[in-house]
Amino acid sequence: MTRERLYLFDTTLRDGAQTSGIDFSVTEKIVIAELLDRLGVDYAEGGYPGANPTDDEFFAEKRTQKARFTAFGMTKRAGRSVSNDPGLQQILAADVDAYCFVAKSWDYHVKVALGCTNDENLESIADTVKAAVATGREAMIDCEHFFDGYKANPDYALACAKTAHDAGARWVVLCDTNGGTLPDEIKDIVTKVQAVVPGDHLGIHTHDDTGHAIANALAAVDAGARQIQGTLNGIGERCGNANLISLIPTLLLKPAYSDRFEIGVAKEQLAEITSISHAFDEILNRSPNRHAPYVGETAFATKAGIHASAILKDPQTYEHVAPEAVGNRRRVLVSDQAGKSNLLGELQRLGIAVDKADPRLDHLLADVKQKEAEGYAYEAADASFELLARRALGEVPRFFAVNSFRVMVERRHNAIGELVSVSEAVVKLDIDGEKRMSVAEGNGPVNALDMALRKDLGKYQAAIDGLELIDYKVRILNGGTGAVTRVLIESHDTSAHRRWFTIGVSSNIVDASFQALVDSINYALLKAESA
Ligand SMILES: CC(=O)SCCNC(=O)CCNC(=O)[C@H](O)C(C)(C)COP(=O)(O)OP(=O)(O)OC[C@H]1O[C@@H](n2cnc3c(N)ncnc32)[C@H](O)[C@@H]1OP(=O)(O)O
Ligand SMILES: CC(=O)C(=O)O
C-alpha cells in the first residue's frame, strides 16, 4: 500500500518564542536549529525577520541545513503595495527556502484588528503570496483564527483559504489561534475546506488551550491536512502548540497513522527523540517533564507490583510501544506499591543477581515498605536504594562509622559591623578503629556538615576527590514544625561522570540531611571500590 507524505513544520523558534517566560538568545536559536535538523522535521520556522534584533541576527547568521528554513511575517498592510511595505520587504529579503505569512481569515478580525474591508484583506493575501512566489521560494499562508472565522462567516473564511491557494501558496494552514476548537469541529471544517483547496495543500496549526492540540492536529490529518505545525515539547503562545515530540512517535509507531502516512523522520531519528527533548529542556534551563508521553522519565516506569510481575515476564503486557523505539528506557520502581518482582527488576538493572526464592528478598521488601511508611521514597533515590539492597545482601563494607556530629549556627556582627550568619560543624568518625575529628565552616548547617564529613576520610579521601553536591531538595511531610522532613540530595562525581540521588528522613532537617550526605559518600566509595 502506498503511503501519503505528511509534512512536519516546526515553529519552536517563532510561536515557541511567544511562550511566556521563554526568551531565546541568538546562540540558543542556533543550537535549537541544529536540534531540529537532527530530529528531521521538514520545515523550521526561524522567526520574524525585522521584528527584533535577535531574529535579524539569527537570520543573518544561521539557517537549517536539512529542514526548509522558513521566515514568518504578516501579509502586506492594506492601502499599501507590496513594494511599499517595508516590513514585508524585510521578510522577502531573508535568505530562506520558504515564507509563512499570517493572514486574517475571520471577518470580525478584519474589521476590528486590521480596520480594513474584507476585500482589501483578500487583496493583501493574494498580493503577498504572489510576491513571495515571484522570488522563486515556497509560500504558505497561516489562516489565523480560521476555525472561529469559519463558524462566524464560513464563506469569508473559505474565500481567504481559496485566495491564498489560487495565488500559488504551497500550503494553506488552518490555525486554531485561540485554541478553543474541539476535534470533531476541526474534522468537520477541514473536510469542508477541501472543497476549495483540494489535494495536499492544507496544513494545521493548533494550540493546547483545551488540552486538545494533538488530538486536533490528528483530526485535521484524518480530514485531509497534510502538514502539521507544532513545537518541541509543546511550547508556544499561552498553553502551547501541538507537541511534535509526542506527535512524531504516534505518527511512526501507531498503525492508524504509520500504515497510511510517511514522514521525514527516520526510525533512527525517532530513537534520538528522548535525548532531543531533554537537550531542548537543558537549553530552556528547566527540568524535563518526568511524565511527558514517550520521552518522560516515568513514561515507561512501573510502580505497581502486579504490573512489574507481568512486565518481567513480557514487557508488552504493560507497554504500548517499546521504550527503546523512542530512546527511552523501562524502569521498574521500588516503593510501597512494589512486590518482589519490582525488587528483582531493579536489582537486575543494578547487576545484582538474586533468586526470587532467596529469603533476603522478603526482608529487603519488608524493609523498603517500612521505610517508605516512615517517609522514604526510594523511586527518587536510586543510590540509597542500591545501598539498602546491597547491605541486605551483605555486599557493602563498613567504610567508616559516624560516632557523632554537631552543628552550630551563629548570627553575629563581623569585624566591619555587618550582620552575618556562620555555620560550623564537627564530625567524629571511626575508620578502621582509628578516630578522626573534622571541623568545618559553611554557608549553612548542611554545607558545613558536608565540608566536615568530607574533610578527612583517611585512606578513602582520594575516592571522593571529584564528589560534589549539585542539588538539595527538602520536602516537609505531614506539615507543622514537628513534621517529618525528607531530604533528597543529588551528587555528581566529576571524575567518574556519574550522578546519583540519596535520601534522608527525620523529624530533624539537619539529621535528615546528614543521612543523605552519608549515603552519598558511601555510594561514592562503593562505586570507587567496584571500579
Ligand atoms: C497568531 C500569531 O501568533 S501571529 C504572530 C504574532 N507574532 C508577533 O506579533 C511577534 C512579532 N511582532 C512584532 O514584533 C510586532 O508586532 C511587529 C514588528 C510585527 C509589528 O509591530 P508594529 O508595527 O509596532 O505593530 P503592532 O504590533 O502594534 O500592531 C500590529 C499591526 O499589524 C497589523 N496586522 C496584524 N496582522 C496583520 C496581517 N495579517 N496583515 C496585515 N496587517 C496585520 C495590525 O492591524 C496592526 O496594525 P496597526 O499598527 O495599523 O494597528
Ligand atoms: C499563526 C499562529 O501562530 C496562530 O494563528 O496561532
What does this structure look like?
By secondary structure, the protein is an alpha/beta fold. It has helices at 26-39, 53-61, 86-92, 107-114, 118-134, 146-152, 154-166, 183-193, 213-222, 244-253, 255-258, 267-270, 273-283, 305-313, 340-349, 359-374, 382-392, 445-455, 509-530; strands at residues 4-5, 7-10, 43-47, 68-74, 98-104, 138-144, 171-176, 202-206, 227-230, 261-262, 301-302, 331-332, 401-413, 419-431, 434-442, 467-477, 484-493, 498-506. The strands form five sheets. Strands 2-3-4-5-6-7-8-9 form an eight-stranded parallel β-barrel, surrounded by eight helices. Strand 7, helix 8 and strand 8 form a beta-alpha-beta unit. Helix 1 packs across helix 2 (53-61) and helix 17 packs across helix 19. The longest helix has 22 residues, at 509-530. Residues 15, 102, 142, 144, 175, 177, 205, 207 line the site of pyruvic acid (PYR). It catalyses: pyruvate + acetyl-CoA + H2O = (3R)-citramalate + CoA + H(+). Keywords: Amino-acid biosynthesis, Branched-chain amino acid biosynthesis, Isoleucine biosynthesis, Transferase. Its EC number is 2.3.3.21. Residues 6-271 form the Pyruvate carboxyltransferase domain.
